[in-house]
């Protein structure tokens, strides 16, 4: 059975070399097969050396939420698929993906996935077994780390057994732009603007335990100093985005990137793949008709999302 693994961590120990300047670590995580059996791993990044894969680097945070989703093959016959998860502080890849609002090139280096290095300090390590977590209420295990903090490991079937006959396979391709975002950035002489990016998450609900969570699937690049951002096109496999269910709830969360502190949440909007496909603009990239309304925790509209493209391809 093919399963997906989501990772997030909280309150990790800060081992940044610049923590005396109030800098935080840049954590990433790697997963390897413990028993040395490479045939249990469906590695998209590195099929060799028992490496399942590696997440992206989360910049300047001790509570990372990684967008990377690992896909592995769980041995239902032996019911034993052990994995080792290691969290490290990236000492070389320190920059986020950012670009100016008038240039499609990246201002800083783009790091989609880290490359583990012996120079990167270890922030924690834990061994887990896929089947054990799969059978837990909520299908998530909280692992305390000796170095400080905890790691949450969530395991779920890639395609739910009871829904296999109703799922859609393929790649979801989309492009989103923002309009009229509320500017919470004063900047120099009051002339600055926000540096917006969005996160796309899928809803997880366990009817047995009643647990509901949102799991990060994709994080866009940030765009510097703009209230009407135009983000790059992106694509996500449907099994990872929504487990092949076009009616599964998704959520766009909007943030303002902060270089020296935690990023600021602006607002969010819930939607499905079907609704995104129905919301594709027919009036041009600046049309507000049919745009998705982003609201804050007081229910106030803080901006619009215009769907420029949303389609499923084989």
From TrEMBL:
SMART domains, sorted: C2 (SM00239)
InterPro entries on file: C2_dom, C2_domain_sf, C2B_Copine, Copine
One Pfam family it belongs to: C2
Top-level division of the source organism's lineage: Eukaryota
Residues covered by the C2 domain: 1-144, 155-288
Name under which the protein is recorded: C2 domain-containing protein
């Amino acid at each position: 059975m093919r399963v997906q693994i989501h990772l997030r961590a909280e309150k990790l120990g800060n081992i940044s070399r610049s923590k005396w300047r109030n800098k935080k670590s840049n954590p990433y995580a790697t997963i390897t097969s413990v028993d040395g059996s490479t045939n249990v791993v469906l590695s998209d990044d590195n099929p060799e050396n028992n490496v399942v894969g590696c997440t992206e680097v989360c910049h300047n945070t001790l509570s990372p939420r990684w967008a990377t989703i690992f896909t592995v093959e769980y041995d239902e016959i032996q019911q034993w698929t052990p994995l080792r998860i290691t969290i490290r502080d990236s000492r070389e890849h320190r920059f986020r993906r950012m670009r100016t609002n008038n240039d499609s090139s990246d201002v800083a280096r783009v790091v989609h996935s880290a490359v583990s290095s012996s120079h990167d300090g270890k922030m924690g390590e834990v061994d887990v077994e896929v089947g054990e977590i799969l059978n837990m209420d909520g299908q998530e295990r909280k692992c305390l780390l000796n170095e400080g903090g905890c790691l949450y490991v969530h395991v779920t079937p890639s395609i739910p057994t009871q829904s296999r006959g109703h799922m859609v396979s393929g790649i979801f391709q989309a492009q989103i732009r923002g309009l009229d975002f509320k500017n919470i950035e004063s900047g120099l002489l009051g002339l600055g603007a926000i540096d917006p990016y969005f996160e796309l998450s899928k809803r997880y609900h366990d009817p047995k335990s009643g647990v509901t969570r949102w799991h990060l699937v994709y994080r866009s690049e940030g765009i510097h100093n703009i209230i009407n951002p135009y983000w790059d096109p992106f694509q996500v496999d449907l099994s990872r985005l929504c487990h092949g269910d076009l009616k599964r709830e998704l959520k766009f969360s909007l943030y303002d990137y902060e270089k020296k502190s935690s990023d600021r949440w602006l607002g969010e909007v819930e939607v499905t793949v079907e609704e995104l496909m129905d919301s594709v603009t027919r009036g041009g990239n600046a049309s507000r008709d049919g745009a998705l309304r982003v609201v804050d925790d007081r229910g106030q509209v803080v901006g619009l999302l215009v769907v420029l493209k949303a389609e499923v391809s084989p």
